[in-house]
Design brief:
This protein is mostly helical. It has two domains: 42 residues; 92 residues, no CATH class. Helices cover 37% and strands 5% of the residues. The protein has four helices and two strands; from the N terminus they run H-H-H-E-E-H. The protein has a two-stranded antiparallel ribbon. The protein is elongated. The model has no long low-confidence stretch (mean pLDDT 83).
Length: 166
């Protein structure tokens, strides 16, 4: 049995129609047929893998449930509970910003953001709500100043957030 492309059959039947078309219409029809040919080629390539079992994974499947919980707790304990030689903690030297510039449905306002770590000289353990039109970049500019980067601006910032500075 010879494998014949469906597109080849359609093109054979379309030759008579193509003779009556103008140059632009013929080009559009050729582009359309090329798109169909590309899809057909991709389907033929995928078809060769039907029934072929996947190769075994180089690592075993992870166990169900929360894996790594104890390891994560250990890392947190090291960051917060372990003292450095000078009496400080690793957490005292960290400046961390976590969040997004989008809240929901591409809304750029009221973005929840977590700023933590003692490395930037910010107040810890506070919930600070800034005025409605405060750019999120103001928080990042405040962190930059806290770690010693005296940048004038960051993105669309308008200044530091004074309520955030410890």
């Amino acid at each position: 049995m010879q494998k014949h492309s469906v597109l080849d059959t359609v093109i054979e039947n379309a030759h008579a129609m193509q003779r009556g078309l103008g140059k632009t219409d013929r080009a559009n029809l050729d582009e359309y047929f090329q798109g169909i040919r590309d899809i057909e080629t991709r389907l033929n390539k995928d078809e060769q893998w039907i029934g072929v079992p996947p190769a075994p994974a180089p690592l075993p499947e992870p166990k169900p449930g929360l894996a790594g919980r104890e390891e994560t707790k250990l890392i947190y304990d090291i960051m917060v509970a372990v003292k450095e030689a000078d009496g400080t903690r690793l957490f005292d030297h960290v400046a961390l910003a976590y969040g997004s510039n989008l809240r929901t449905e591409h809304s750029l306002d009221n973005c929840p953001t977590l700023l933590t770590g003692g490395g930037a000289g910010i107040k810890l353990g506070h919930n600070i709500v800034v005025s409605k039109d405060t750019p999120l970049c103001n928080a990042r500019l405040t962190l930059l100043h806290g770690i010693g980067v005296e940048a004038e601006r960051h993105g669309d910032s308008t200044g530091v957030i004074k309520e955030l500075i410890a």
